[in-house]
Specification:
Organism: Chitinophaga silvisoli
InterPro entries: AbiJ_NTD4 (IPR049503)
Protein name: HEPN AbiJ-N-terminal domain-containing protein
Structural class: mainly alpha
Strand order of the largest sheet: 1-2
Mean pLDDT: 89
Helix content: 55-70%
Number of helices: 8
Number of strands: 2
Distance between the termini: 33 Å
Shape: globular
Pfam families: AbiJ_NTD4
Length: about 180
């Protein structure tokens, strides 16, 4: 959930909102916000089920490690959840942070969304995948970051008009056609 805090309203009144997107830096506060979003979606286990929050972290961690050719994302003795979060918080390359975010949100769409009601019942999840994607995109925009999660992947937004008028409808059409097959 996004709150329109007093400080945000004041920044808008002063014209201190970013109008130009940045692509080569992800601020620390945005990284923390992303970790909060992920944690709110995955939650913790309440009842045993076939989809366990620890398994989700383990799956995401395992995929990233395999793709990068490493055994651990971060730290020596941390669980997969902490490794993923520390990686998002501390990775130096923007593309690597976005790899972790992109993969995690793809997982939300493909695995959690179809069975979210059951998942929510068995966990402490507070945020459904669609709401998480909406919040992620708002947070990107609030921070002037030129990326958006659309059509099942993170995309670079070079032109807001072109993205809104051409790219989004096209991706939506393609995504819906893929789901129907």
């Amino acid at each position: 959930m996004i709150f329109d805090l007093f400080s945000k309203r004041q920044k808008r009144l002063r014209g201190e909102v970013p109008e130009i997107f940045t692509y080569d830096h992800i601020p620390d506060n945005l990284r923390v916000q992303i970790v909060h979003i992920i944690d709110d979606v995955i939650g913790a286990e309440r009842f045993a089920s076939n989809l366990d929050p620890d398994d989700i972290y383990s799956t995401i961690h395992g995929i990233l490690c395999r793709e990068y050719g490493v055994f651990r994302l971060w730290g020596k003795y941390e669980k997969e959840k902490e490794q993923l979060f520390n990686y998002i918080l501390k990775a130096k390359l923007v593309e690597e942070v976005l790899d972790a975010v992109d993969l995690t949100f793809k997982y939300f769409l493909s695995v959690l969304k179809p069975s979210y009601l059951n998942y929510k019942h068995n966990t402490t999840s507070k945020l459904d995948p669609d709401a998480a994607i909406q919040e992620l995109n708002v947070r990107f925009k609030e921070n002037g970051i030129g990326y958006s999660f659309e059509g099942g992947e993170i995309l670079r937004i070079d032109s807001t008009f072109m993205h809104k008028e051409v790219t989004q409808p096209t991706l939506s059409l393609l995504w819906n056609n893929c789901l129907l097959r």
